[in-house]
Amino acid sequence: MTKRTPFLRWAGGKRWIAARIGPLLRPLIRGRYIEPFLGSGALFFELCPDRAILGDLNRDLIGVFLQVRDRAAEIEEALRHIPVSVEVYSEMRESRPSDDFTRAVRFIYLNRTCYGGLYRTNRGGTFNVPYGGGSRTPEAVYRDHLLIQAAGALAGTGIEIRHADFQVLVDCSGPGDVLFCDPTYRSAGRGRFDRYGPDVFSWEDQQRLATAAREAKSRGAVVVIMNIDDPDVRALYDDAALIIGLARKKAIGNPVKDDSWHREVIAVFSDETPRDWASLVCAGNQNRQGEEAVSLIATAI
Ligand SMILES: C[S@@+](CC[C@H](N)C(=O)[O-])C[C@H]1O[C@@H](n2cnc3c(N)ncnc32)[C@H](O)[C@@H]1O
Questions:
Q1: Which of 98, 123, 124, 254 is such that its CA lies 20 to 30 A from the CA of 19?
Q2: What is the 120 CA–ligand 1 centroid distance (Å)?
């Protein structure tokens, strides 16, 4: 199936690298594609596999994916009739719809109009991101039929969508399955936790993921994990078949001297990792207009 455009904006989303990683993963998938930290599902929509298990701990997010799968056209029509303004945004943010359909419309509207496409809640689980406006309004969703496109990828009988902790999905993997794990990143190694909602993703969770990944690999699965590049994370994955360090920036600069470069790693657990991964990830990175969008340097360790 041809690739689709993710319908959500998502902090930490992998839209920027999906077109690089997708072709590397596709030939390795002999069983199911498993994505336990779904977010906007950038890699899933890049691959559009026939058999997949998609999961996330964010119950509202999973509710949206289920509604998009089942009622994409109706959601697009509902979005078409909601004006984009700070007043309407505030009303939507305060609203507490009780049915799944209206909750999904609200979620997508807020996601497309909030500041930076962030999903952030207070400790009570209430969405609290301010209005952003900007260019990625809900209009793009119905104008380009992103939900109907997404539904085409989600509706197959081989696609399972689950509200679950990542470990449930990782533990059910077996021979021939490929897992793409994109957890909440370690928070800069300063002992602070990172979170999307009320649930923290602690260092113990990072360790739990590393252990589950090793076990999945020993059952015959391929596991690809992304995270921030810091010494603790590298130590956590020091037995991976391959670690690729990425440095990226939206402007030209010196990655060695300049702190504004984002440094991330890709750890690959597999018996048969192609050694050309780093060069492929590194090879250019263009935006939709074909211009160099981010500078990306990848190094295999
Ligand atoms: C970095 S985002 C994933 C972004 C995604 N790859 C994309 O392209 O949009 C991390 C996701 O992990 C989810 N998450 C956090 N803790 C989790 C857990 N224990 N189990 C499963 N999902 C979790 C968050 O809700 C968030 O959607």
A1: 254
A2: 12
CATH fold for the domain made of 15-57+157-300: Rossmann fold (3.40.50)
Domain locations along the chain: 15-57+157-300, 64-151
Q: pLDDT digits over 235-261, tens only?
A: 999 999 888 888 876 555 555 555 567
pLDDT tens digit sequence for 40-78: 999 999 999 999 999 999 999 999 999 999 999 999 999
CATH number belonging to the domain at 64-151, selected among 3.40.1160.10, 1.10.3470.10, 1.10.10.10, 1.10.1020.10: 1.10.1020.10
Question: What residues have CB less than 8 Å from 112, skipping those under 6 apart?
Answer: 9, 136, 137, 138, 140, 141
Q: Which of 34, 57, 162, 185 to mutate to test the pocket of ligand 1 (most atoms within 8 A of CB)?
A: 57
> Ligand 1 site: residues with CB under 6 angstroms?
10, 12-14, 36-37, 39-40, 42, 56-58, 165-166, 182-184, 196, 199, 201, 205
Task: For residue 35, give the ligand 1 atom closest to its CA.
Answer: 6
User: 171-189 as b/e, with b when 16 or more CB fall inside 10 Å?
Assistant: ebbeeebbbbbbbbbbbee
